[in-house]
Design a protein that fits this description.
Number of helices: 21
Length: 572
């Protein structure tokens, strides 16, 4: 097929690429991949080219003259054309369903996608091309419709095609010109439509830039302009492209953790800085959230220095210097294999979880002495390159995940999650538990640049995510406004009855009056407030009040801040 101003060849290439990916996952030959092309027209654009690749393809369309033309053009035994509605294929199951420039013509696209859902096999995909409802194509045609130029142009086009049209141009025409566009999608609106119908977006690609009735004729006259028009879409924002391509799959079925079928749980890959443990806030939260998830269907990729628990998960991959490599000029530490030891030493100095035995020798001491200068320039994070190492790739391949769960939290994690998602074609679920984007990369001379990078890449990650979660309704509303997409509120609920059994019931004042704090001591959050309480308790104790304040914190924080927080006879 020769490339056109509308990017038909590019679209077909995207479809074949995604079908081949599915075929390799299913482990079947091309002739065993069953495809349904809905609204196939005369088959020249999609149905017949896919049939020529060896797939079993059924093209279906409601316009009888067009289907008759398709049958006349078909000489492939693995391709069949049907005239009619869904009842003609109801009861069948397809690995791939193609919706090429269909949904924008439908008054009720959600109900239509419901029919598609029932025809798609559990592991199947739908491949969609749909125009940007507010892109150059639709804007140009809107102006031409309002001025009457479009109607005149269509009359002239019919005359020209009937008299001078080339064989290829005629082959790409549908004989049904009566059904115009009635849906005008934004990317977010289209994503929500798919979600409401039970699908999530797995892959997205931008198509051509121009394509309205007048510009299409002008661009088509010069082959270099055709190539430029199609290629430019790769580099422009999606809002400036006229057409978008999607690969979508069925959403995993929600099940009850206490009584659901364990087969319905997806194989989940966590990519997070902390994992399951009984000490840190993140570790405890994850333990609560994933309690009841089949242990064989969860694996974690992390760089948590706290020894992980095996109660929820027993498949762990620790991220080290092979995945998070310091960039120049700090990369010299990699030459001596000292990056991780130095990181431990720096983390321990900040009161953040580190290995109990830290080191790094003279390099560690030099960097610790240089940290104030480094922070003036770079802030709190040494510049880092991200890499999916061979060891990490093997770990993921052996686990065979179906979805990624992440809280992101930093620019390196944003990039790692995106690299893994791209490499293994996985949907991503992002869980925002606090507003970390508002506090990251605020320090250092170059902090503003890193913050700009993070915000840009985080925005893109939010757009591509299959689902986004927050921890409350108000947070969801705030993030929806900020990132322009839907957020589900997913609370970290506790079993109130368990804690009520341990709740204080006798409020009679006793001596000493005892206060207790149990939790993390992070330098950017809890530490300052706990220090203020320590000062207040010490002051009251000095004035003669019999009061004590006990602090229970993870060992790494207690070790770092004990001398700073303890007060004789008052705080311990």
């Amino acid at each position: 097929m020769k490339e056109t101003v509308y990017g038909f060849k590019t679209r077909l290439r995207f479809f074949i690429e995604r079908i081949e990916n599915l075929r390799s996952v299913l482990g079947v030959e091309s002739e065993n991949v069953k495809i349904l092309d809905v609204g196939c027209g005369n088959g020249a654009q999609v149905t017949l080219p896919l049939g020529a690749e060896g797939y079993r393809v059924i093209g279906i369309d409601i316009h009888e003259p067009t289907i008759e033309k398709a049958k006349q053009n078909n000489d492939l035994k693995n391709v069949e054309f049907i005239c009619g509605y869904f009842e003609k294929v109801r009861g069948k199951s397809f690995d791939v369903i193609v919706l090429s420039d269909i949904l924008e013509h439908l008054a009720h696209p959600k109900e239509f996608l419901g029919e598609i859902y029932n025809l798609l096999s559990p592991n199947g995909i739908i491949l969609i091309s749909v125009p940007n409802g507010y892109g150059p194509f639709e804007i140009e045609n809107f102006i031409l419709r309002r001025t009457g130029i479009l109607k005149l142009g269509r009359w002239l086009k019919q005359k020209l095609v009937s008299q001078k049209g080339t064989q290829e141009e005629s082959a790409l025409q549908t004989l049904n010109h009566d059904n115009g566009h009635v849906q005008f999608f934004t990317r977010d609106k289209f994503g929500k439509l798919l979600k409401d119908a039970g699908f999530y977006v797995r892959n997205f690609k931008k198509g051509c830039v121009l394509g309205g009735s007048l510009t299409a004729r002008a661009v088509s006259a010069f082959e270099p302009l055709i190539k430029l028009n199609v290629a430019a879409g790769k580099y422009l924002p999606h809002q400036m492209c006229s057409v978008w391509y999607f690969e979508a799959r069925k959403m995993p079925q929600a099940v009850d953790a206490k009584g659901g079928d364990l087969q319905n749980y997806p194989r989940l890959l966590m990519i997070t800085s902390s994992v399951f443990n009984p000490l840190s806030g993140g570790g405890i939260t994850f333990t609560n959230l994933f309690h009841g998830w089949p242990k064989g269907k969860i694996a974690a990729v992390h760089n948590d220095k706290i020894t992980p628990s095996t109660d929820i998960c027993d498949k762990y991959y620790y991220l080290g210097a092979k995945e998070f490599k310091w960039a120049f000029p700090f990369s010299f530490a990699n030459l001596f294999g000292a990056q991780e030891k130095i990181e431990d030493s720096l983390r321990a100095a900040k009161g953040v979880a580190a290995s109990r035995k830290t080191g790094g020798g003279i390099l560690s001491r030099v960097l610790r002495l240089a940290m104030p200068a480094i922070q003036v320039l770079f802030g709190d994070e040494i510049p880092t390159k991200v890499c999916v190492s061979n060891e990490l790739e093997k770990f993921i391949e052996e686990f065979k995940p179906e979805v990624i769960y992440t809280i992101l939290g930093s620019l390196p994690y944003i990039r790692l999650v995106n690299e893994v998602a791209d490499k293994f074609n996985l949907p991503v679920v992002i869980h925002m538990m606090d507003d970390w984007p508002e506090v990251r990369y605020k320090k250092g001379i170059l902090g503003f640049y890193k913050n700009m990078q993070m915000q840009k890449e985080l925005q893109a990650s939010m757009k591509r995510a299959a689902a986004c979660l927050s921890i409350c309704d108000s947070m969801s509303k705030s993030y929806e406004k900020r990132y322009g997409r839907h957020f589900e509120s997913f609370h970290n609920a506790l079993d109130a009855q368990v804690w009520l059994k341990k709740a204080k019931k006798d409020w009679e004042r006793r001596s000493p009056f005892k206060l207790v704090y149990s939790g993390a001591l992070m330098p950017d959050s809890q530490l300052g407030s706990v220090r203020d309480v320590c000062d207040a308790v010490d002051s009251l104790h000095t004035e003669g009040l019999d009061i004590e304040f006990d602090i229970y914190a993870p060992w790494y924080a207690a070790q770092r801040y004990r001398a700073e927080l303890e007060r004789p006879d008052a705080v311990k």
